[in-house]
């Protein structure tokens, strides 16, 4: 065994030395990124990513060098002819590859432990080292076992990797199984990896080790049975025909998964003892509550069913996402909340409902875009026609409900225009929406719809709505391909016979005219300016204060919305935001946010003031910042 | 075969060093070995003959433990096993048909690597063998010619002074000069050290030069195992007197019928020159030939090999 090990070391000395060097450099890079990076807790937080990346690079390469290469060059036949047991050859290679892997990771482990102790100034205990090291070691053993077995597959190992990835994807999709929460990946990517040193994840570790045992037994089986012509057959390179075959299988499997995903429907969200209104492709469920008389809820259900049926019929939608409503009287009367349903289909809306104060136009204006977003599988967020959805909601309200909404929408548009609207905002609609708020953005978009109706015709604009908002988009790559094949400007021109660029000029001319016409009525509406102050408590700890800057004479109550932005996240999730409401007099002197914040925490905030004149909230604009 | 090329007095066969019993091996539906019984005795040079695909390499790979038999057993140095143990292989020298050495190793490195697995390895002897075979010890395997690699394989196989040397068509792919040189070395080893040798080949001339016992493999089993002399006594050609006479065909038919009745196995019939190649035990031959007018023609080992292994339609 020693002789064989010495041969392996001599044989692979240079590549292995280069690999160890590369891994050490990678560890240093990760260490530096962690040190210099934003929003870091402690050094252990980035270590799992290094282990994952390092394993992905080092393990297949090591197994290729020690196993696949032996079979590819047929030198295993020479080894088998020597007085050596095949099991000894297997064990030597297995131990060496695993020892090398641990050898690659050990320096990085010590480096990161040093970082935790000397830079983070945390107490590094033996228990902590055992927990972190144990989690990583078990993962490495499991990943090594998989790769070692695959290395014996010779020419078929690449296909095996592809199919394993696909299988994981399929399992994850079909059973809604998050791999990061289960088994080997949970060992590394559990959110408590860097902090939880109280309870070792024995269940995940044992599952990983059991999997490793299975793969190692498979490897041993292949090592003992692969011989002679079988070895030669498996070891040689894939022919072009085989490559084409496996590529075709791979692509068709991916497409099958996509189609499967398209067909897959989650169970609908259930509300017990709900008031139900159903028709073809439409289902509305309203949860009963003691705070509202059943008759009133029945009335609400009837009205909603009528309105959404009309929307479904107008846009030609084969179905509408199921609408579930729960009454929450603790909410503001004209604030509506959508809950995200992970395992169920449809929308869950929370609202406060009192028949005497109910404002149907506000609810409809809020609900219609939500329905269409869900219906489009949230593709509207990514499309350049997002503004059309925002323009459609007020147009539909105007179309369906009695009342003089026109004046209100014009005032909102004039106010928003005065804050500054550019052509670039149309392309980056989602940021524009965040900056002004949904109500003002809808008013601007509605001006665009009106300009289009004026230039084209009502029928043509309706056809555009139906084509763009009513068509059910596929839940896979076909939606992207369709978007590329039929870009919005050409669809726009086909249906309205108006050039998209010319329309945008018309739109802004109309905004200008509206602004001029409504200038007087919006003169008294305040423009908010606010700032965030940072109070340094220690080297790493901060406290935050919001302060209203302008206008100094504002009276009423001011809200500050804020949220911590998760890593890599840029969308502001309405359900995540928190609110502080104070009198404007207090806001002018400054409002402390409770709690403390780490340096480099990603943070988003805005000030908001409800304008009676515009019947909506005015925002100072969402700011994304990093706590300095 | 000539008396010059035949080994002079071979040592008297002693105990059996290597024997197979009922060896069966299949690849899928194709049965390569069908109850193969083979035995190699101490001091013998055993010529293992067979056509391409007859199963020679499979047999040897099974003997070396590279492949496993489906059925049957093997006796290594008198001990019955299904596969050789490490201790058995430490007494076997093996030269394979193709050499799959590590190309980055030099001849000396390769010797040092292999030496760790053989307790009886003699490094000085290995160096002498390299010298004897004109192999530069520092040259890397990748830079060796095919002939040099085979000689290196032989040096590796001999350096631990094995009890038995197994050569699996080692001369395949060598030019005539290299082949002759290699055979001389093997012959010399066998004569001087009385090394038991199992030499597999489909080239009869090679085996004829060095073997004192042959086994002829046909379709997975041995159709003959014994000394070349015994083979020559068993397989003979009979030619009709005056084979051009018009009744030659009838006479050949009658001869064949007679031979069949006497228990002869007709391997080949040639109506054109009025001859039969037949196989029988020497005493049967002796009895049958008494008082007959047909002429006996002595066959070479190659002729006998062809008669035993080639389909009857093929003309000799």
TrEMBL record, chain A:
Mark the transmembrane ranges: 12-35, 47-67, 94-117, 129-151, 158-175, 205-224, 244-260
Keywords (alphabetical) are: Membrane, Transmembrane, Transmembrane helix
Task: Identify this protein by name.
Answer: Uncharacterized protein
From TrEMBL, chain B:
Domain (ABC transporter): residue spans on this chain: 18-244
The transmembrane residues are none
Question: So which domain of life are we looking at?
Answer: Bacteria
What is one Pfam family matched by this protein?
ABC_tran
Q: Does the keyword Transport apply?
A: yes
Q: Which UniProt keywords apply?
A: ATP-binding, Nucleotide-binding, Transport
- GO MF assignments: ATP binding; ATP hydrolysis activity
For this protein, the record's Gene3D superfamilies field holds:
P-loop containing nucleotide triphosphate hydrolases (3.40.50.300)
Q: What InterPro entries is this protein classified in? A: AAA+_ATPase, ABC_transporter-like_ATP-bd, ABC_transporter-like_CS, ABC_Transporter_VariousFunc, P-loop_NTPase
Return the protein name. Answer: ABC transporter ATP-binding protein
């Amino acid at each position: 065994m020693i002789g064989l090990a010495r041969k392996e070391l001599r044989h692979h000395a240079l590549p292995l030395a280069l690999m160890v060097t590369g891994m050490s450099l990678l560890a240093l890079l990760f260490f530096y990124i962690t040190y210099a990076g934003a929003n870091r807790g402690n050094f252990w937080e980035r270590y799992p990513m290094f282990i994952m990346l390092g394993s992905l690079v080092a393990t297949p390469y090591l197994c290729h060098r020690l196993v696949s290469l032996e079979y590819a060059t047929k030198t295993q036949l020479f080894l088998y002819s020597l007085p050596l047991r095949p099991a000894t050859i297997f064990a030597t290679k297995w131990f060496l590859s695993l020892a090398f892997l641990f050898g690659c990771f050990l320096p990085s482990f010590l480096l990161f432990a040093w970082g935790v102790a000397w830079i983070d100034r945390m107490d590094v205990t033996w228990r902590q080292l055992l927990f972190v090291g144990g989690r990583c070691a078990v993962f490495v053993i499991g990943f090594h076992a998989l790769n070692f077995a695959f290395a014996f597959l010779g020419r078929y190992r690449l296909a095996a990797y592809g199919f394993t990835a696909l299988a994981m994807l399929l399992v994850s999709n079909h059973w809604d199984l998050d791999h990061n929460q289960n088994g080997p990946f949970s060992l590394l990517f559990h959110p408590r990896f860097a902090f939880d040193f109280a309870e070792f994840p024995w269940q995940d570790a044992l599952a990983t080790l059991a999997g490793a045992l299975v793969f190692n037994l498979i490897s041993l089986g292949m090592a003992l049975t692969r011989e002679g012509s079988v070895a030669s057959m498996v070891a040689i390179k894939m022919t072009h025909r085989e490559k084409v075959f496996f590529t075709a299988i791979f692509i068709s499997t991916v497409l099958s998964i996509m189609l499967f995903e398209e067909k897959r429907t989650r169970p609908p969200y259930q509300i017990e003892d709900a008031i139900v209104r159903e028709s073809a492709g439409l289902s509305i469920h309203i949860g009963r509550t003691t705070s509202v008389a059943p008759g009133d809820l029945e009335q609400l259900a009837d009205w909603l069913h009528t309105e959404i049926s009309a929307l479904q019929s107008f846009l030609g939608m084969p179905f509408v996402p199921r609408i579930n409503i729960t009454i929450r009287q603790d909410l503001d009367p004209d604030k509506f909340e959508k809950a995200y349903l992970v395992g169920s289909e449809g929308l869950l809306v929370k609202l406060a409902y009192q028949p005497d104060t109910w404002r149907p136009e506000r609810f409809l204006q809020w609900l219609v875009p939500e329905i269409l977003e869900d219906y489009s599988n949230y593709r509207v967020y990514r499309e350049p026609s997002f503004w059309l959805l925002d323009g459609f909601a007020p147009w539909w309200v105007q179309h369906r409900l009695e009342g003089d909404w026109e004046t209100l929408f014009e005032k909102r548009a004039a106010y928003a225009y005065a804050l500054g609207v550019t052509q670039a905002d149309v392309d980056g609609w989602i940021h524009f929406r965040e900056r002004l708020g949904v109500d003002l953005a809808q008013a601007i978009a509605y001006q665009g719809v009106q300009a289009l109706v004026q230039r084209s015709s009502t029928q043509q604009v309706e056809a555009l709505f139906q084509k763009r908002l009513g068509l059910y988009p596929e839940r896979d790559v076909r939606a992207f391909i369709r978007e590329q094949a039929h870009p919005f400007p050409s669809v726009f021109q086909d249906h309205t016979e108006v050039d998209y660029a010319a329309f945008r000029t018309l739109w802004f001319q109309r905004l200008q005219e509206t602004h001029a016409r409504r200038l007087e009525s919006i003169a008294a509406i305040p423009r908010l300016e606010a700032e965030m102050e940072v109070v340094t408590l220690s080297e790493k700890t901060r406290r935050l204060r919001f302060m209203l800057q302008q206008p100094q004479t504002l009276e009423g109550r001011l809200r500050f919305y804020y949220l911590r932005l998760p890593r890599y996240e840029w969308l502001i999730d309405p359900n995540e935001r928190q609110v502080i409401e104070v009198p404007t007099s207090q806001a002018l002197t400054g409002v402390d946010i409770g709690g403390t914040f780490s340096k480099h925490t990603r943070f988003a905030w805005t000030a908001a003031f409800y304008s009676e004149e515009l019947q909506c909230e005015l925002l100072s604009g969402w700011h994304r910042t990093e706590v300095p | 075969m000539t008396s010059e090329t035949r080994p002079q007095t071979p040592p008297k066969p002693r105990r059996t060093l290597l024997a197979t019993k009922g060896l069966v091996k299949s690849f899928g539906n194709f049965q390569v070995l069908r109850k193969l019984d083979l035995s190699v005795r101490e001091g013998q040079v055993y010529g293992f003959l067979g056509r391409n695909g007859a199963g020679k390499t499979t047999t040897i790979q099974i003997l070396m433990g590279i492949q496993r038999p489906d059925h049957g057993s093997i006796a290594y140095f008198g001990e019955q096993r299904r596969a050789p143990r490490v201790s058995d292989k430490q007494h076997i020298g093996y030269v394979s048909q193709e050499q799959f050495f590590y190309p980055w190793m030099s001849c000396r490195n390769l010797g040092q690597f292999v030496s760790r697995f053989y307790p009886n390895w003699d490094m000085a002897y290995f160096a002498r063998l390299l010298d004897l075979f004109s192999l530069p010890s520092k040259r890397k395997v990748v830079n060796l010619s095919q002939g040099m690699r085979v000689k290196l394989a032989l040096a590796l196989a001999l350096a631990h002074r094995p009890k038995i040397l197994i050569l699996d068509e080692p001369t395949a792919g060598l030019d005539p000069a290299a082949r002759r040189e290699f055979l001389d070395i093997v012959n010399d080893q066998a004569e001087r050290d009385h090394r038991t040798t199992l030499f597999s080949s489909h080239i009869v001339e090679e085996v004829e030069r060095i073997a004192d016992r042959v086994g002829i493999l046909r379709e997975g089993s041995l159709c003959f195992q014994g000394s070349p002399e015994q083979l020559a006594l068993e397989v003979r050609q009979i030619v009709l007197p005056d084979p051009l006479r018009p009744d030659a065909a009838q006479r050949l038919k009658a001869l064949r019928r007679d031979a069949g009745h006497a228990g002869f196995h007709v391997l080949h019939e040639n109506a054109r020159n009025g001859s039969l190649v037949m196989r029988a035990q020497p005493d049967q031959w002796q009895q049958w030939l008494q008082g007959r007018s047909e002429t006996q023609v002595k066959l070479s080992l190659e002729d006998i090999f062809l008669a035993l292994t080639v389909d009857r339609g093929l003309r000799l």
